[in-house]
Specification:
Length: 451
């Protein structure tokens, strides 16, 4: 039997309004049992009703109750939303009464999970609901809205329809070879269609990096020797005294983080311990963490003091950074220097300082240029936005490439169906046509209660 669930859908704390949400076959009856006002079991759908939540003869709160009858609701079940006066005690008491009357406390994301399982939304749209809640920038909000609206899902379904069309032609040729009016499928007329699908999948992967950047931002690690100005750079970028700044080498012993928005994209900036050999145990741990960050960062800003005497150690360190975007910031350019920085040219060098108001403008412009942030747009693109989606498209692409290679060889055409089916099913897994229960549990566990 399907249970009726309830949860507080608004943030915990004092506010003007808080909402307690119910969904399930008994939602209207249960809320009606604690509501003094109109008989909610007899009202029309999508109406709002004034009254009181009661605990026997005691008034708990003055409320407005919204009724949404199945199937015209988010979950496709009967849903009720109780608009209470904001406050922890009052809201919790309303929730407690609903649980006493037979509701079950929802799990994280259970309302959205029911919307998916009942066919109201697909898996991409469900993930986008979570992304919308967590979005921190305007562009990440727009990307999530695009996916909730089904932009990416339509793209996936369009590719799947093309695969089905090819599959159908192949199977008709196999099953009914005696019919003369059926178009004969040959390698010549099949190959262009396979390549078209491959191109579309490659395009999805090509733009996946944009989706990741828009959704999660760019992880930036500030590295360099002690006392080159890393902490001052962090403080200047985030316009806040996040990191302690002194002239004592090794002051920063652990990572310090801050965030800024640049061209609508979130930069997650991490100031790290100065890289040097040290006998201090605590500082050693900090240096080790700095080096570990290089493996996960999207961008390393390597800071060099403009007054430094030698670049030997810096160049040795930079040479070991493989497969990472790097910007070398020559800091303290307000101090004159005769240093020659030709050896740094391949590391996108820029000069700057934290003294002047626009001392780091060239650094920001270089980040924009390196990631093409001013070219990112969410209005007309269907971006993949998480590792699950990207992984499945990669598997789909691998299958379609295998089909292409088979067509080029002497493999019988009917064998192509195996790869086409694999491609079709992997794409179906993106939108949730097939899924594993543990995947859903893990995915929706990231959601908040009440969503």
């Amino acid at each position: 039997m399907i249970s009726t669930i309830c949860a507080i859908s608004t943030g915990v704390g004092t506010g003007a309004i808080s909402i307690v949400r119910c969904s399930g076959p008994e939602a209207i009856r249960i809320v009606n049992s604690v509501f003094k006002g109109e008989n909610l079991t007899k009202v029309q759908s999508h109406t709002i009703h004034y009254g009181f939540i009661m605990n026997k003869n005691e008034k708990i709160d003055e409320v407005l109750v919204s009724i949404m009858k199945a199937p015209k609701s988010f979950t496709l079940e009967d849903m009720v939303e109780i608009n209470c006066h904001g406050g922890i005690s009052t809201t919790n008491k309303v929730l407690e009464l609903l649980l006493t009357e037979g509701c079950k406390l929802s799990e994280p994301g259970e309302f959205t999970k029911r919307a998916f399982l009942n066919g109201r939304i697909d898996l991409v749209e469900a993930e986008a609901v979570g992304d919308l809640i967590m979005s921190e920038t305007e562009k990440s909000r727009r990307l999530a809205i695009n996916q909730i609206s089904g932009e990416l899902s339509r793209k996936i379904n369009d590719i799947r329809a093309k695969i089905i069309s090819i599959q159908a032609n192949i199977e008709v040729n196999i099953d009914y070879p005696e019919y003369n009016d059926i178009r004969i499928v040959t390698k010549t007329n099949l190959l262009p269609n396979i390549r078209k699908i491959k191109k579309e999948l490659e395009e999805l992967l090509k733009t996946a990096e944009n989706g990741k950047i828009i959704k999660s931002g760019i992880d930036v690690a500030i590295l360099g020797k002690p006392n080159v100005g890393k902490s001052s750079i962090l403080n200047n970028l985030v316009e806040e005294n996040k990191a302690i700044v002194t002239d004592i080498p090794g002051t920063t012993r652990d990572t310090v983080e801050g965030k800024i928005i640049l061209e609508g994209i979130l930069l997650n900036i991490i100031d790290t311990a100065g890289i040097r050999k040290t006998s201090d145990k605590v500082e050693k741990i900090g240096v080790s963490r700095s080096l570990e960050l290089c493996r996960t960062a999207d961008l390393v800003i390597y800071v060099i003091d403009n007054t430094t005497k030698t670049l030997k150690e810096d160049l040795e360190f930079l040479a070991n950074l493989k497969g990472i975007k790097i910007i070398v910031l020559i800091n303290k350019d307000d101090i004159s220097s005769k240093n020659d920085y030709k050896e740094l040219e391949k590391y996108n060098p820029v000069k700057g300082n934290t003294i002047e108001q626009k001392g780091l403008s060239d650094l920001k412009n270089k980040i924009i240029e390196l990631f093409k942030l001013n070219e990112l747009e969410t209005r007309n693109f269907s971006y993949l936005s998480n590792a699950r989606q990207i992984s499945l498209v990669k598997k789909s692409l691998s299958a379609i490439k295998n089909a292409e290679e088979c067509l080029k060889s002497e493999v019988p055409i009917d064998m192509i169906s195996i790869d086409l089916k694999e491609c079709y099913e992997q794409l179906g897994e993106i939108i949730g046509e097939r899924y594993k229960e543990d995947l859903l549990d893990e995915l929706f566990s990231r959601f908040c209660l009440g969503k």
